[in-house]
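User: Please run a holo structure prediction.
Assistant: Happy to. Please share the sequence and the ligand.
User: Here you go; the ligand is SKM.
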Amino acid sequence: MSPRVVLIGPPGSGKSTVGQILAERLGVAFRDTDTDVEAVAGKSVGDIFIEDGEERFRELEAEAVRRALAEHDGVLSLGGGAILSEATRELLAGHSVAYLEIGLSQAVQRVGLASARPLLVLNPRSQLKKLMDARRPIYESLAGIVVATDERKPDEVVDEIVKGLRP
Ligand SMILES: Nc1ncnc2c1ncn2[C@@H]1O[C@H](COP(=O)(O)OP(=O)(O)OP(=O)(O)O)[C@@H](O)[C@H]1O
Ligand SMILES: O=C(O)C1=C[C@@H](O)[C@@H](O)[C@H](O)C1
Ligand SMILES: [Mg+2]
């Protein structure tokens, strides 16, 4: 069993929003590894970062991704930083992966300046820029489909992903 498509990209690129619409369009289930991690830990991503630290979150995340890649056959959205794990990158090699691209100014607008995202609490714009610059080559190296999302509504992003999917 393998997901129909795995969505990757930085915070605000629309993995969760687009993923749900895409799953409906394809008539398959939607799954989000941030939600899976929260279910296992019994607390929010923000609380895991505060109480247990980012390293523990990344361990839980890598395990959630491994499980979802093996169990889920619908649309799977990963947390923005899931691709930082080497084990996850290796696992993704055999999957249909779509990278949702976004520019810095749109990303800042979408995540909001008072962000609930734990990595972006202090100075979201500069944190996002650093994170996006460091991860861009990784997202690109893993993706079979790349979709620019800046000038597109979620529905239009879904159209582009569907065009790129193997029949
Ligand atoms: N193509 C789009 N156009 C306009 N707004 C969008 C688009 N995609 C997502 N959004 C909005 O941007 C915000 C962030 O989207 P979303 O939560 O789906 O991002 P994400 O990639 O899942 O982020 P994270 O990595 O933090 O989980 C939401 O308010 C969503 O409605
Ligand atoms: O980009 C990231 O590193 C993150 C993105 C979110 O999806 C969450 O997984 C968490 O806030 C970390
Ligand atoms: Mg999300």
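The chain has one domain: 5-161.
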